Amino acid sequence: MLTIGRTLVLPETELIERFLRADGPGGQHVNRTESAVELRFDVAHSPTLPQAVRERLLARRDRRLTDEGVLVIQARRFRDQGRNRDDARERLAEIIRAAQAAPKERVATKPTRASRERRLVGKQQRGKLKQTRSRDWSRE
After folding, report:
1. Could you say which DSSP state residue 98 is in?
2. Among 78, 93, 100, 123, which is most exposed with the fewest C-beta within 10 angstroms?
3. Which pTM value belongs to this model?
4. In 7-138, at which residue ranges do the beta strands (DSSP E only) sit?
5. Phi then psi dihedrals of residue 39, to 5 deg
6. What is the residue extent of each domain of the chain?
7. pLDDT tens digit string along 89-116?
8. For the chain, what percentages of helix, strand and coil (3-state, to nearest 5) are there?
9. Is the pLDDT of residue 12 over 90?
10. d(Cα 119, Cα 49) in Å, to the nearest integer?
11. CA 9 to chain centre
12. Amino acid 30: pLDDT
């Protein structure tokens, strides 16, 4: 069981773990042990996820999400398998927690009259500055 929040818990059957050899430091030991973890979670077909969370996760522009809607997380930060496994699960939980919060609706606003006037005055000043830089070619 992977606890995401008070109301959401993912069962072990929905998580697919694969262990592979990690790259990086470790000498000969790194060539013999499979300490890296690849955690797969099928977002598109998960019966546990609420529909709103599923839609927000699938709408994300995330390179870890496959075309089939499977979220793939690779953990190889640590040298032992157990810590990498915990790291992958915690990262998955963080992604799902972030998708649980609904984004705020944007309230359309109009610029104030004073801000529009400041903008126009600034443009006029900039134009005058550029005019003073130019040479008057008609007199030569």
Report:
1. H
2. 123
3. 0.69
4. 9-10, 15-20, 36-42, 70-75
5. -105, 125
6. 2-100
7. 999 999 988 888 888 899 999 999 999 9
8. 40, 15, 40
9. no
10. 48
11. 21
12. 65
Q: Which amino acid is at 106?
A: R
- Rounded to an integer, what distance in angstroms lies between the CA atom of residue 37 and that of residue 72? 10
Looking at domain 2-100, which of 3.30.160.20, 2.30.110.10, 3.40.630.30, 3.90.1200.10 is its CATH number? 3.30.160.20
Handedness of CA 2, 41, 73, 97 (dihedral sign): negative
Identify the residue whose tokens are 């640590």.
78
Instruction: Return the ∠ at Cα 85 (arms to 72 and 10), rounded to 5°.
Output: 65
Q: What is the bridge-based pairing of β-strands 2-3 and 36-42?
A: unpaired
**Helix, strand or coil for residue 61?**
coil
Each residue's pLDDT tens digit, 66-78: 888 898 999 888 8
